[in-house]
């Protein structure tokens, strides 16, 4: 009960502070299994994307997050585990034989959808950093899961670094069409095409 109330408070606050608006431009808000991949410019990215989803989709959509950050204290552990139901990954391999993608594969096998940031780190500049290979390996391992590019616009301007109060700017999330699968495509070509599909969702001023 407490986790549900906390989730409601967080999603309401996220929408209120950012004026968040979801634009379903290339797909519709249907309860199908998806991997939403987005640009990453703020610590609030996954919260806003998660909050922008309709309740029916949000219940089965889990953000992917770094265990090293979210396991640091009791509050963060509560939020990521009980409120967001996040999938925690180890950014440093514990052994040469460990698979850092396994928690995500397990979540997909459980029927969950995921929120992923393939740049791997926050990008405070325009455009996108090169994508990490995880998106390719997930797409190849679970071809039944739709890959949906989502461009998050203005969040880094709504809450710029060092500012305590948000600026009055509208934040939009543009959901694109599912990325087509090409059987013989190389990893490099796939990642470039996925990156281009995400960039295509950016508004001109971004």
Give an overview in words:
The structure is a single chain. With about 210 residues, the protein is an alpha/beta fold. It has helices at about 1-20, 45-50, 55-60, 65-70, 75-85, 100-110, 135-140, 155-160, 185-200; strands at about 20-25, 35-40, 60-65, 85-90, 115, 145-155, 170-175. Helix 1 (about 1-20) crosses helix 2. It has one domain (about 1-200): 3-Layer(aba) Sandwich (Glycerol-3-phosphate (1)-acyltransferase), CATH 3.40.1130.10. Residues about 160-170 have low confidence and may be disordered.
CATH-level-4 superfamily name: Glycerol-3-phosphate (1)-acyltransferase
Number of DSSP E strands: 7
Widest beta sheet: strand line-up: 1-7-6-2-5-3-4
Proportion of β residues?
A: 15-25%
Q: Which H/E pattern describes the elements?
A: HEEHHEHHEHEHEHEH
Count up the helices: 9
How many independent structural domains? 1
Tell me the helix content: 25-40%
What is the averaged pLDDT score? 86
**What radius of gyration results from the CA coordinates?**
16 Å
CATH topology: Glycerol-3-phosphate (1)-acyltransferase
Structural class: alpha/beta
In short:
By secondary structure, the chain is of the alpha/beta class. Helices cover 37% and strands 17% of the residues.
């Amino acid at each position: 009960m407490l986790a549900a109330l906390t989730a409601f408070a967080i999603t309401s606050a996220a929408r209120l502070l950012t004026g968040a608006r979801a634009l379903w431009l290339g797909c519709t808000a249907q309860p199908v299994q998806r991997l939403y991949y987005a640009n990453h410019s703020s610590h609030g990215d996954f919260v806003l994307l998660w909050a922008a989803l309709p309740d029916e989709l949000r219940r089965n959509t889990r953000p992917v997050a770094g265990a090293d950050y979210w396991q640091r204290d009791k509050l963060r552990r509560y939020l990521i585990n009980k409120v967001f139901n996040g999938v925690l990954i180890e950014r440093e391999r514990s052994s040469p034989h460990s698979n850092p993608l396994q928690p995500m594969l397990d979540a997909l096998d459980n029927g969950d959808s995921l929120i992923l940031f393939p740049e791997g780190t926050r990008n405070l500049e325009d455009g996108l950093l090169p994508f990490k290979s995880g998106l390719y390996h997930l797409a190849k391992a679970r071809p039944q899961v739709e890959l949906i590019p989502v461009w998050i616009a203005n969040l880094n301007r709504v809450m710029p670094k060092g500012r305590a109060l948000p600026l009055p700017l509208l934040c939009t999330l543009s959901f694109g069409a599912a990325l087509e699968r090409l059987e013989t495509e190389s990893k490099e070509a796939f990642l470039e095409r996925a990156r281009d599909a995400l960039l295509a969702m950016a508004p001109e001023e971004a």
